[in-house]
Amino acid sequence: MDKLVIEGGPRLSGEVTVSGAKNASLPILAATLLTDERMEIRNVPDVADVRTMLKILQALGVEAVKDGDRVTTRPTPKRQWLAPYKLVSTMRASICVLGPLLGRLRKAQVSMPGGCIIGPRPIDLHIKGIEALGARVKIEHGYVHATAGSLRGSTVYLGGPCGSSVLATANTMMAATLAQGRTVIENAACEPEVVDLADCLVAMGAKIHGQRTHVIEIEGVKALHGARYTIIPDRVEAGTYLLAAAMTRGHLFIKNGRAEHLGAVIDKLREAGVQVTSANGGLKVDAPRGALRPVNVTTLPYPGFPTDLQAQMMALMTITDGLSVITEKIYPERFMHISELNRMGAYVFLEGASGIVRGVRALSGAPVMASDLRASAALVLAGLVAEQRTDIARVYHLDRGYDGMERKLEQLGARIWREKA
Ligand code: EPU
Q1: Residues whose beta carbon lies within 6 Å of some atom of ligand 1
Q2: Which one, out of 8, 143, 313, 368, has a CA that is 20 to 30 A from the CA of 155?
Q3: 344, 375 in Cβ contact below 8 A?
Q4: Domain containing 137 — which CATH number?
């Protein structure tokens, strides 16, 4: 098992290129199940979750090959509808094959995604969405079994206790593209990754409107055809580099970073005293040498502050000059990073679904343990500024969703490398 080693200190400077969005790639790769024709998807990041999704597609009888950032898929005559536990258990996002399998084959058997370190992650809204289209769903022996003689469009409200759901919207939208008649998804998620999926489906011949809003309308068609599609840049990766620059008081050009996808994050960084501007296909970020101001942050569905940048934002707040409150409204238990940040000298305590952070003068390097993808990124950011050496164990979490993070950081001047643990 690998670990990451970081010697804190250097200010980051230079240019970093953002890869394609993991959370757009996964449902878009699943969407290739909806067609019998060849698909070509570009700007797919080189991350472990994408490799898992390719294995799932192969298990479902689709040839799926990755060559650089390009994935080509071609269904074979041996199509399957069973997504096995062995693969699904390694990645919760595998649930997004449910909608396309049901849409195309009228049958799906998908292992229930397992528990998750960031808190409970129910799938009731996924089931509600496909049941509204006429699917019969039962859960047996750890699998979701869904069948439908035919799928019929209808109106469905997809709001849960924490608002809209990204992948429940994705599943319902994908199944609805091949249903008879019109489907309306109310309280639909409007994250850029949902919009990207909808745009890809439109390129495949789907009829979809309203995908930038909370009401998405889908007029079912008989079949979808193959297409070429390019994935949007990863806003969470871009946001992580914005925060890395702020953390190290550096200045970066983040190529492919899109301000329109990061409004809430840029707003909070400016409030903290960091300059962020859009320039020539990317984002420029300049952090002042002195102390940053503490800011309060609440995560919310898009366009609110993304939960996937909460841990990294908390890492930044640990070295500001004062008190900040970071509140989770999407995953109220997503705070595993607090104890590890505190091992590095931070002062954070948990109060309900809020992390209360009192900024300290400096963090100190320590051996720490990554608990999940975004928590790992927060520990990397902390390690970049901590005095002396930080060893981050279980780095496989980071590899699930960041394309070449240590290589990119090294090119920006960080002292970071991988060792066998
Ligand atoms: N929820 C329900 N019922 C459901 C589904 C969700 O109550 O059936 C609740 C969840 O418990 C949560 C809220 O709805 O409180 C939002 O969850 P959502 O369904 O939107 O999450 P997701 O679609 O499973 C995607 C991303 C996550 C990201 C969330 C929120 C992918 C592959 N995953 O998950 O990304 O945190 O949206 O934006 O797109 C990550 O990349 O690290 C990651 C966890």
Answers
A1: 23, 26, 93, 121-126, 160-162, 165-168, 189, 193, 307-308, 330-331, 373-374, 401
A2: 143
A3: no
A4: 3.65.10.10
